[in-house]
Design brief:
Rossmann fold, 3 domains, seven-stranded mixed β-sheet, 17 helices
Length: 418
C-alpha cells in the first residue's frame, strides 16, 4: 500500500539479526544460518534463493554444464532404478555446483533438512550480478516445467517424471483397443476436435475446457484408451496416482495438482479411479477446482471409475464438470470374437492354431472382460509352451484354451456356486 502524502514515513530500525534471533530453534532458522554464512564469506557476491531447482534435468537437456564440487563435502544417496533401468540413480542431498550457462559462470548451493512436515530444501544461485541468477532460474524453470518425453506422476505430495510410463504409452497399439462400433474413433475425434477449436469456443464466449469420465467394470479398456489418448493428443500428460500424505491435507495436494496442470496448458490431467481419490472431505474443494473459480482454459480433465455409483452426483451429473461420459462395458460376442482373432494372428508364429475353435471359445467366454480374455490367452500360451519340453508331445493348443477357459470360469464364480 502506498501511504498518503500527509502520512509520515515510517522507518523500522530493527537489528540486523532480528529474524535469526527470533526464529532460533525453528526449522526456518536453517536457511538463515546459511545466508549469514554466505554474507560472511562472500559479502560482495549476490545470490537468489528458491525452494525448487531441477538443475540435473536442465543439464540433461543440454542447456547448461554443471560440476559438483568436492568441497564442501557433497552428500547424496542412491536408489535402484528398477529392473528395467538396473542402475543406481544418485539423489543429491547437499552440494555445491559450478555451472556454466550462456557464457556465464554461476554457483548453486543446495541444502536439505528434515522437519516434522517432511523434507525441506533450498537452493541458492550465485552470480556476478543478481539479474544473471534470475535469468538463469527463469530459463531453467521454463525448460524443465514441461515433462517432455515423460509423464508427470503425482504421488507422496510431489510430481515425478516417469519415462517408463511414457514408453509404455508409446508402445500402446490402437488396433488392440476393441470397442463397440465406431465408439473408439468417435471418442478420439472428440478430443482432437476440442484441441483445435479454441477460436470457436472464444467466439461463442464458452470456456475452452473439457471434462470426461470413463466408466465401467474393470478390465474393459479404460486404461488402454487413456494411453491411446495421451499417445495421439501429444500434449503434456499429468497422472494423479494418490492424494494421501502424512502432513498435507488433500486440499493442499489438489492445489499442487491443478497448479502444475495449469502451467502446462493445453494439458491432459488424469484422475484414475476417481472414486478412491475424492471423498467427502475433499469433494467440495475438488468441485471448486473444476468449476471455473480457477483458470482451467485449455485443461482436459479425464477421470476413470469402476464404481460410478460411489461418486457423488454433484461430480458425476453436472455437465460443466464432466460433460462427456463414456461407457466401457463387457465385450459383446462379436467383440470377443474380434479380440480372439487378433490374438490368433499375434500368436501365429508361436503356436499351431488356425482359429477353428474360436466360435466355441467365444460362447464359453461369455461375461469375460478383455482383461480375462487376455489372461486366457497368456495363461494358455504359457501352459502349452512349458507343460511339455517336447513340442511333439504337447496337446493341441485349442484343447489347452478350452481347459483354461473352464478354469477361469470357475475362478470367476462365487464360492457357494462352485
Amino acid at each position: 500500500m502506498i501511504p498518503d502524502a500527509d502520512t509520515p514515513e515510517m522507518n523500522l530500525h530493527l537489528p540486523e539479526d532480528t529474524f535469526f534471533t527470533n526464529l532460533q530453534g525453528n526449522p526456518a532458522e536453517i536457511p538463515l544460518r546459511f545466508e549469514r554464512l554466505f554474507r560472511t564469506y562472500l559479502p560482495n557476491l549476490p545470490f537468489v534463493a528458491t525452494n525448487a531447482l531441477d538443475l540435473q534435468t536442465f543439464a540433461d537437456l543440454g542447456k547448461c554444464h554443471c560440476r559438483l564440487r568436492s568441497k564442501p563435502f557433497a552428500s547424496f544417496v542412491v536408489d535402484w532404478g528398477g529392473p528395467d533401468e538396473d542402475r543406481l540413480v544418485p539423489d543429491h542431498i547437499q552440494g555445491v555446483w559450478d555451472v556454466s550457462w550462456n557464457e556465464h559462470s554461476l554457483q548453486v548451493v543446495h541444502a536439505t533438512w528434515q522437519t516434522e512436515c517432511g523434507r525441506q530444501q533450498r537452493y541458492w544461485v550465485f552470480a556476478l550480478d543478481a539479474s544473471i541468477a534470475r535469468e538463469f532460474m527463469l530459463e531453467l524453470a521454463r525448460q524443465t516445467n514441461d515433462p517432455g518425453e515423460s509423464v508427470l506422476v503425482f504421488r507422496s505430495g510431489e510430481w515425478e517424471r516417469s519415462e517408463e510410463m511414457y514408453q509404455m504409452i508409446r508402445s500402446t497399439s490402437l488396433d488392440e483397443l476393441i470397442l463397440p462400433g465406431t465408439q473408439r474413433e468417435e471418442m478420439l475425434a472428440d478430443f482432437h476436435q476440442f484441441l483445435i477449436a479454441k477460436d470457436q469456443y472464444d467466439a461463442l464466449g464458452i470456456a475452452w475446457r473439457r471434462g470426461a469420465i470413463l466408466m465401467g467394470p474393470p478390465g474393459n479398456g479404460k486404461t488402454h484408451f487413456l494411453r491411446t489418448l495421451v499417445q495421439q493428443l501429444k500434449i503434456p500428460c499429468l497422472y494423479v496416482q494418490c492424494l494421501d500424505h502424512p502432513y498435507y491435507t488433500s486440499e493442499q495436494l489438489l492445489d499442487l495438482v491443478f497448479d502444475r496442470a495449469r502451467q502446462l496448458r493445453p494439458a491432459l490431467l488424469i484422475f484414475e479411479d476417481l472414486d478412491s481419490l475424492i471423498n467427502e472431505e475433499n469433494r467440495s474443494f475438488f468441485l471448486n477446482q473444476l468449476d471455473g473459480f480457477e483458470k482451467n482454459t485449455g485443461l482436459i480433465v479425464v477421470a476413470t471409475t469402476n464404481h460410478p455409483e460411489r461418486i457423488d452426483s454433484a461430480i458425476l451429473d453436472r455437465p460443466s464438470r464432466f460433460d462427456r461420459k463414456y461407457e466401457f462395458g463387457l465385450p459383446s460376442q462379436s467383440e470377443r470374437q474380434r479380440f480372439l482373432y487378433l490374438w490368433r494372428d499375434k500368436l501365429s508364429k508361436l503356436v499351431p492354431w488356425n482359429g477353428d475353435a474360436i466360435p466355441q471359445l467365444v460362447e464359453s467366454s461369455a461375461d469375460f472382460s478383455y482383461a480375462y480374455l487376455k489372461e486366457l490367452m497368456v495363461s494358455s500360451l504359457l501352459r502349452w509352451l512349458h507343460g511339455n519340453s517336447n513340442p511333439a508331445s504337447r496337446p493341441p493348443f485349442e484343447q489347452v484354451l478350452s481347459e483354461q477357459c473352464e478354469l477361469l470360469q470357475l475362478q470367476r464364480m462365487p464360492p457357494n456356486d462352485v
